Amino acid sequence: MTLAIDDLIEATNSRFERVRHPRGAAADASHPAARASAESVTYINAFWPHVRAAIEADPDRLGLSATIMRDGTEHVIRAVDMREAMLADPRIDAPADEKLRRGTIMSAIAVMSQNLNHATATWAADLTSMPRRCPLDYLVDARRFVSLRMLLPLRGEQPDRVGGNAPTLVMGGTATALTMCWNLLAQMPRAWRELNGAPLNAADAERLWADTRELVFRLGGGSLAAFVALASACSSQAGAMIWDRAGELGLTLREGRHVWTMTPTLKHYYDEMLEEVTAAQQGHYVGCAALYARAPALPLAEQWADPVDTTREHQVLAELVRWITAVARAYYFPLFDAASAR
């Protein structure tokens, strides 16, 4: 018996009170969680121009190349080169198609994460420079932000006083969301074959990913407890690129839409983690602050990215998913048609 993740998220969210994000400034919010959410939005808005700059620096406008410093010298790393190195590595023992898919997933995560890391580093420099190039505080009180309460380990003799900083506040969830999306993309071919008895092609991958994005936004709109519990259930190692228990995810059809499911074994891990993080949720949820943050769209390659309305600002979470979608179209989905043509 499998369980729909949509139902699991709804049941988890029902354990907490929904608090509305304020329409105006943080000072307009009556609930502490709403004020913290509004403050988080200001940090996300300050961080996002650095992500846009990282995309602009890539000649292909996909964020699949990044500049890193090594021994005091700048080096450009490219996902395609990283993938080729993985394919040539005799230590990776897997069928050719699986090796190619895995290399594609891992190289995409690695280079996109490197661009996020670079954006974080340049933003941190703005936060700590003298004179300050960003007026926001670098250090923040972790007790006020649910993401830091859940993602940072308790330290010292006073467990209620956990230190945090602005880059950690913004990057913790962003990096995990990126990894979660790619792990769902990685499981699509297997889950599709199990459901339909046929290999996945690029057109079906596009449609399945459209349904999967609904799950991502459902997670973003709910409690962080559900997001953390799902991510932790799927992986025994918090920092892993490829989640070792994600093979317990599956697909079913519900009213014409593909819905992700989990096995009872994975549900057991979900429930275990949920009990650990429920107290940190403190009885309420607002939803991911990136749902409320507005910023200019990422300057992604028009050939691959969903079109945008250039006359308005866009939701940051949607832009993150739009970036992942563009990379998947350019770099991952074509693998399925190439495999079926052979």
N- to C-terminal distance:
36 Å
The radius of gyration is 20 Å
Helix content: 40-55%
Overall, the morphology is globular
Helical stretch tally = 11
Secondary structural class: mainly alpha
Total separate domains? 1
Q: What is the N-to-C order of secondary-structure elements (H for helix, E for strand)?
A: EHEHEEHHEHEHHHEEHEEEHH
Mean pLDDT: 92
How many beta-strand elements?
A: 11
Low-confidence stretches: 153-162
- The order of strands across the largest sheet is 1-8-7
Strand content: 5-15%
Largest sheet: 3 strands, antiparallel
Describe this structure in words.
There is one protein chain. With 342 residues, this protein is mostly helical. It has one domain (3-341). 55% of the residues lie in helices and 12% in strands. The chain has 11 helices and 11 strands. The protein has helices at 5-13, 32-56, 79-87, 96-128, 146-151, 166-196, 202-221, 224-234, 264-281, 316-332, 334-341; strands at residues 3-4, 17-18, 65-70, 73-78, 139-141, 163-165, 249-254, 257-262, 284-285, 294-295, 314-315. The strands form 5 sheets. A 3-stranded antiparallel sheet has the order 1-8-7. It has a two-stranded parallel ribbon with strand order 2-9. Strands 3-4 form a two-stranded antiparallel sheet. The protein is globular.
Please provide a brief summary of the model.
This protein is mainly alpha-helical. The protein has one domain (3-341). It is built from 11 helices and 11 strands.
